[in-house]
Amino acid sequence: MINRFALGSLYVAAAATLGEPSRAEAQASSSPDQCEVATPMSPTRLLRRMSLDLRGRAPSFSELETIQADGSSPAELLQSWLGSDAFLGVMRKHHEELLWPNLEQVEFVPQQHLLFALPREDGTSTLLSPVRSIFVRTAGAGNLYYPCRNEPQSYDQDGRLILEPLLVGTTTVAWLDGYIEVQPYWAPETTVKVCALDALEGETAAVCPASAERYPLLENSCVALDRTARAVNLPFRGEFVDCGGPLAIFAPECGCGSDLRRCQTPQTLERTADSFNAQALRIIDRVISEGRDYADILTEARIEVNGAIAHYLRHQSRLNFNLFADPDPDAPLESVNLTFTDRDWLPVERTGRHSGVLTSPAYLLRHAAWRQRAHRFYNAFECSSFVPAGPIPSPFEACSQREDLTERCGCADCHRTLEPMAAHWGRFAEYGFMNLTEERFPSRGLRRCSPPYTDLEEVFLCSRLYELEPVGEEADYFGFLNAYVFRSPEEQLRIEAGPRALVQASVDSGRFAGCAVERMWTRFMHRTPTDDERAEVLPELTQSFRRSNHDLRVLLTEIVTHPAYGRNP
Amino acid sequence: MMTLRWMSWSAPCALVCLTACGSDGDGSGTDAPPPVQTVDVPRTTTDPLPPHHPDLAGLSVASRGPRRLDVDELERSWEVITQLPLGSVQLPEFLARSLGEPDWLSVTEPSLEPSPLFMKFAVDLGNILCTQVMTDEVGRPADTRAILRYPEDVSRNLRQLILRIWAIDASAPDHPDVERLRKVFEAGSSGPAGIYSGWLAVCVAMTTAPEFLLY
After folding, report:
1. 3-class SS letters over A438-463
2. Model ipTM value
3. Which terminal CB of chain B, N or C, has fewer other CB atoms within 10 Å?
4. Disruptive mutation site among B168, B189, B203 for chain A (greatest number of A CBs within 10 Å)
């Protein structure tokens, strides 16, 4: 055993000896008077470089020995490496850098549907929703958080829960339930303890069903919503609603449902988010592994669904008022027979405006606004950025008052390009991934968004998705779907066409190919192209890439066999 | 070398500071600024270039840029080099963030600078993994070992390690890297565990060297 002091001393000795990087290789092929920059790499070092770039790891000892023994070129291994799973991993990483997959801030379900484990003194734990506790247990003037008791739930003769009052003096401050045992959807072979009020299984329940005395912390919302409903001649208080919809949070008897299907835990949430991210990247994996046109990653119709995604879309996607994620008629799930625990991926053929990763839920959620979606595309796949032409003029100037950003001075330089691009996502809801089909959401919604409404959810959708309260120049667009506001007839066609038309224009113009070449060159050369390379090398690579129908393997073979790639740094 | 150069530069600087302090505190009561003193600061120059070297401004030969290994590449490379199953080396995710892996939310670009933090981490990792791998190798047949393949034949073992870890063909007689590492081995072998200490020093030195960490 070596003690740390001895090891530290050894390291100092080693560092002193190895203080400078090895120059042995350069010395072997050039004299000390020559500049080392231009010397070609030895085959073994080149093998290491290519292996790390294309497989994300150093070459094996046997691979190195083979190259050392027969002097063969590392390039001979290229094609097998470009077809390996390790290469797909490298490409996945490259596309993560373009797409920024992170859904940590997405509220997939309302907080009322989030279950946490409450540790008990006897060493067990009970699942409960802390936010829901405030709304369903607290009574009277109580304003504290009360969990359920650590006792089995009891029922009356009619099968209804028996709740016990929690008294402070003679005042009831909460009604407490016990726990029940449930086999949850995320581990159906196990049993967990869940507070009975959270585990309620009903599919419908009444909103705001009782007095302010019983549900004091729900009352303010109930009064406000009741007022809104009355204004459009809709009944509200006491009405039964779907426990799988957004109004369920106002219905205390809408619980997590059978097998807790409408609720999430921190662990299931992480798996759901990871699955959505993986879903987008699997589109890229498939296009590359099948050797297809690289542009297909942006236009591919097929998407894959696993158990976690299928469960979310079937049972939870409509729960959150702030996340538009209604079932998509252009991506039907009927053929996907998976439960949450299924890790298999099954294909779903999307139709309509769907277009590769650009309309995947992960992309739409991560880049929540239309402008964000367009901006990410513009930067990642066209290598372009929005740079203001100068300082923003005084807000008191007339042109600064324009509502239309393509006309507002200081904004127009970027927004004249950005707004038409953003229009391509106009029929995929912001803050969600709902497909706003013409059938359900016509471009002009005056008839749709007028009484009589079918329910309060429709009122809410109209207020969020349509221009119903225009200001100033927006008046001309009263009643239009938000995406159509300020859009010219030509730009409205972009909304109808969806992101695929944007991709097609980029492919036709060569911008897509030119950017892909520049990004791959930068990745594999570990530096941006020089001016000479931009003028001479990249155009040739782009031409070749386009001729090959955007075959990524052709492009990468040309890059890693380029003389510059094989030189010592 | 660096230390000596720094001391020779800092000594005149210290002298200047002391002199300046003294002039402020001499009680003369005048507002006249202290006289300007010049210090002969050593300068580094790139001239003269080696004989027949082309003008630097006219050089247009470009090569691929160097870059340090990222966390994934480091994990997988350690596995390949030491013949461990893929996936055996897993660093905690929080460490990956500290070492420049983006979270794609607040940080959207990988940071692959060979920073002091990264070098501290690389040294610690080298110490830990070299010790673990070598401890494991002691009981295994020689032909399955990576670090201790030929522990008694120093030159041969150094050559296979240089190929394995640095991907440098050191088969030529008197290869300079073999000689450099031989000194490390000899210095290390004076440690408490003899040649085991020597090979440990070589392993740490090689896995913390630019030849391994950069590519």
Report:
1. CCCCCCECCCCCCCCCCCHHHHHHHH
2. 0.85
3. N
4. B168
Residue B100 with chain A: CB contacts under 8 Å: none
Higher pLDDT, A5 or B35: B35
With a cut of 80, say whether residue B21 has pLDDT above it.
no
Q: How far apart are CA A418 and CA A385, in angstroms?
A: 10
Q: What is the pLDDT of residue A14?
A: 40
By C-alpha distance, the chain B residue nearest A35 is B53
Tokens (6 digits) for B89: 């080396």
Looking at every residue in chain B, the average pLDDT score rounds to 82
Predicted local distance difference test score (pLDDT) of residue A213: 87
Selected for mutation to probe chain A from B3, B60, B61, B64 (highest A CB count within 10 Å) is B64
Residue of A nearest to B49 (CA): A33
> In the predicted model, is pLDDT for residue A20 greater than 60?
no
Of the candidates B66, B74, B180, the one whose C-alpha atom is nearest the C-alpha of residue B125 is B74
- Opening angle at CA A336, ends A334 and A338, nearest 5: 130
| pLDDT confidence of residue B36 | 72
Contact map slice: B 21-40 vs A, CB within 8 A: none
* A99 contacts on B by Cβ (under 8 Å): 104
What region does B167 belong to: left with phi over 0, alpha with psi -120 to 50, or beta? left
CB contact under 8 A, A97 and B210: no
Please, are residues B45 and B53 in contact by the beta-carbon 8 Å criterion? Answer: no
Q: Which residues pair with A240 in a beta bridge?
A: A206
Interface of B with A in 68-127 (CB under 8 A): 69, 72-73, 76-77, 79-81, 83, 102-105, 108-110, 123, 127
pLDDT recorded at residue A448 = 86
- Residue of chain B with shortest Cα separation from A563: B63
The per-residue pLDDT for A9 is: 38
Which residue type does A236 have?
Answer: F
Q: What is the pLDDT of residues A256-283, one digit of tens each?
A: 999 999 999 999 999 999 999 999 999 9
CB pair distance less than 8 Å for B83 and A567: no
Contact B188 A532 (CB under 8 A): no
B4: pLDDT confidence band, cut at 50, 70 and 90? Answer: very low
The pairing of strands A179-182 and A171-176 is unpaired
Q: Is the peptide bond before B114 cis (omega within 30 degrees of 0)?
A: no
Contact state of B168 with A42 under an 8 Å Cβ cutoff: yes
B54/A contact by beta carbon, under 8 A: yes
User: Does residue A526 contact residue A565 with C-beta atoms inside 8 Å?
Assistant: no
Return the percentage of chain A with pLDDT > 70, whole number.
Answer: 93
Q: How much is the pTM?
A: 0.87
Cβ neighbours of residue A409 under 8 Å, at least 6 residues apart?
A392, A393, A397, A399, A400, A402
Q: Where in A51-128 does DSSP place strands (E)? A: 116-119, 125-128
**pLDDT at res. B29:** 46
